[in-house]
Amino acid sequence: MAAAAVGLSMVLISISKLLLVICSLGVLLFARRAQATRNAMTGLCTPLAVLLCLFTFAASLFWTVAPQAEGLTSLAKYGKLIMIILLVLLVRDRREARIGLAAFVFAQIFLLASSWLLFAQFPVPWATSRMALGEYSVFSSYLDQGIMSAVFAAICWHLRACLFGKFGHKIAIFLVVAALANVFFVLSGRSGHLVAIALLSIGMMWELPKQYRAIVILLPFLLALGLFFSSAKVQDRLTEVATEVRGYSNQVAQTTSSGIRLQFWQRSLQSIRQHPMAGSGVGSWSHEFNRLEREQNPAHINIDANGNPHQEYLLWGVQLGIPGILLFIALLISVLRDTLKMETPYARATQSTLLALVIACMFNSSIYDAQIGDFFCVLIGLLLALGFTKTAGEATSTPPTSRLCE
User: How far, in Å, CA of 164 to CA of 380, rounded?
Assistant: First the structure.
């Protein structure tokens, strides 16, 4: 349910998270974990990194400039990281991990088909997004759905053999084409476009003979150029970025997506410079932004509490200082390090998901935000469980090392 819910409505995501926590508590209190599960947890760096992140955010409650209630709300938002650990803990063998991935894939297929139906002007009564009719996103924003569909395409391709069986190659090609076409020609999210170009580039590189893999340096630019001339969505959004950035440079009132982001990022960097070692504490970003804006404009109207700068790295920096940015990078590196111990298909699927997260966090607070943050946490947890468990009855051993570009 947790695996399927991350592509669906926020209500289902919340219910599934609650059930996941309850089941995990039951397992910890009453069930005997197999030795294989304990060995898998011992061999992973990611759970330790997750716990360190959550402990640091919790400790920052002692110095946060935000009211305690707001600090606790932000801490709860980062609590979704614990799902990575819970999924590795609960999944006992590779069969169960594949069942979880199958649930994830079927839900994403439903989501993708619903978006195409909206695009074709068919009625989709279950579409609850405010952007359903104009932007063809089903449950979340077009930004989140574009990123999710790009990652889904990568998962289908790299895990085609274990997910789709005998006809895996053909089914995977169909789903990859359908998902990428949806991202590039239907949805308008620029982050989704960038993530899809990056995942397509690295996927093509892995399929090339080793002597030709250096071409990956050119692939993203060639793909972006081709899409600029073939996709009206991509062309319009890239042109819009250039216009919005010029408007910000000319100090035009910031009402555009790019202009607002640049303003948020500027204030975030100011806050980090003023509190470089410990930050302003969990949940403090909105307060810091409002404070810095009032210094320039006393008539500034405060933005809502528990906001974010649409950039995960800067958000951690404002709350925890420069060590917070390093802590987030360490979390990403921990996941990467764990993938190097996996077999090749599982490693590449996880590395693709991690690359998508790295890129998405440059333009959005993709861990802090609901829905897309749950998507990444659940998927990374499932993929780590898939890579570090064995088939039921199989002897536990360390999986063969899989190099990043092997």
Answer: 20
Cα dist from 392 to 6, 115, 337, 389, whole Å:
27, 37, 25, 9
Using 50, 70 and 90 to split pLDDT, how confident is the model at 330?
Answer: very high
Give 246-294 pLDDT, tens digit per residue.
655 555 555 677 788 888 999 999 999 999 999 999 999 999 999 999 9
Give Cα separations from 311 to 179, 239, 315 (angstroms). 25, 21, 6
User: Residue 129 — left, alpha, or beta (φ > 0 → left; ψ -120 to 50 → alpha)?
Assistant: beta
pLDDT by residue (tens digit) across 8-46? Answer: 888 999 999 999 999 888 887 877 655 545 555 667 899
In this structure, are residues 155 and 105 in contact, taking their beta carbons and an 8 Å threshold?
yes
- With CA atoms as reference, report the closest residue to 360 among 125, 131, 172, 197: 197
- In a 10 Å sphere around its CB, with 0-12 CB exposed, 13-18 middle and 19+ buried, how is residue 117 labelled? middle
Q: How far apart are the first and last CA of the chain?
A: 33
d(C-alpha 26, C-alpha 44), whole Å:
22
Residue 371 contacts residue 9 (beta carbons within 8 Å): no
Are 278 and 319 in contact, with CB atoms under 8 Å apart?
no
C-alpha 343/C-alpha 384 separation (Å) is 11
* DSSP secondary structure string for all residues of 271-330: HHHHSTTT-S-TT-HHHHHHHHHHHH-TTPPPPPTT---S-HHHHHHHHHHHHHHHHHHH
Residue 6's alpha-carbon distances to 153, 259, 360, in angstroms, are: 16, 30, 17
Q: Which residues 6+ apart lie within 8 Å of 143 measured at CB? A: 189, 190, 191, 192, 364, 372
Give the residue among 195, 172, 174, 173 at the shortest CA–CA distance from 183. 195
Tokens 């397509």 belong to which residue? 200
